[in-house]
Amino acid sequence: MRTGLEGKSTVVTGGGSGIGRAAALRFAEEGARVLIADLDGEAAEKAAEEVRALGAQAGAVVGDLSRRDVADRVTATARERFGGVDVLVNNAGIMDDMSAAADVTDEMWERLIRVNLTAPFLLTRAVLPGMVERGSGAIVFTASEASLRGSAAGAAYTASKHGVSGLVKSTAVMYRDQGIRVNAVAPGGTATNITVDAAADAAGPRALAPYMAGVGRVAEADELAAAIVFLASDAASNINGAVLPVDNGWSAV
Question: Most buried of 20, 209, 214, 230, CB within 10 angstroms?
């Protein structure tokens, strides 16, 4: 498969661990230059070192990506080090506690929307002008099985990931004539460090339990990374506005 990623400037959010780290390493193997953005500075620097060990250029930016100044700093750093952003991977995200709508606290709702939806929006908005100027670019989001259905997570997480799906499709349509492609992967169960801290008597887990049996085999992070790299590559040159399930058929159940 000809990816066309060699030398491309790539930003991966949440790149210090899990799917983001796996994607960063995959991009490095394709010859891309990788800037890792993460809230965990130690993890980000370690992942950047792993990228360099593969012979690729790498850097790290630490901060809360739901803040506009951090999103702008990520974009500015990529411009200073690599000349801009050719590929953006909006991967960073957090899980809710599986609460049903009546049980979601204000704090939980606001945090999930801020991290899972506002943060990727801010970074997408920040990189688009440069992509438009160059007439090319690829943006890949990590959506979720919860962006496809109402039975994979709590109300806050589900709403945030449905928002991601809408943002992907809207941006793809509005910028497709300017050489920019915007897609997403929708992971099912994946082995990462994201945990669910649900109360034993919460309504959400009880309601969702009958549907969770369809999750099937839990994926490795590298399996998601492979799909992300594909969507960012020239091999997916006519794929735009897609939310690709990478879930071992869970979405088909």
Answer: 20
